[in-house]
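User: What would this chain look like folded?
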Amino acid sequence: MKPLPPMNRRGIVLPERAFTLIELLVAMAIAVLLMMTAIPYFRTARKSALVRATNDLLEAFQQARVKAILTAHAMQVVIFVDDGGTGIGVESVPDFGPIERFESESNPEAVGASEAAGLAKGDGVAFEARFDDEVAFSRLLINGRNVDSADQAAVIRFFPNGTSDALDADLQWLRQDIRRISLDIMTGQPEVRGAQ
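Assistant: Here's the prediction, encoded as structure tokens.
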């Protein structure tokens, strides 16, 4: 048997209860407040690509410095560009004979390309990471020389005594936010400037 609908004292059937205008306005106000608090969170989550890239680069520097000190063998951070975008990796500095050392000093571009090929294959890589597509270097100076990472691999060496090559770089996200990263050559410690 079906229950009877609600009735008033006179026996007239009352309409089913609906939302009032005030209740609807309160619900909309709560929804707007939630959206206003969520939008800044999503903006900061979107910017995390630059933060992740900066942290990956700092991790690579730390790994290379620590491995160079502990193994008493120079390590290098290689920044390379391939089909997958910009990547970084840490590997041991190759031991050159006298002829290879002369060729590397006279033609650093050729050595950079061979290092990038070895790193892309994963030969002896201690650490590897990739940047998001929106993150790239807008400026990359190693030992005072401008390196265009699109043409060749950029190599930053860390030595067993804790020193490193000089680095001044600008890591940029969507041509908006920039992190300026530098290495102290005496300690091999990075410094990051820019909004975190």
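Residues 108-123 have pLDDT under 50 and may be disordered. If you want, I can go into more detail on any region.
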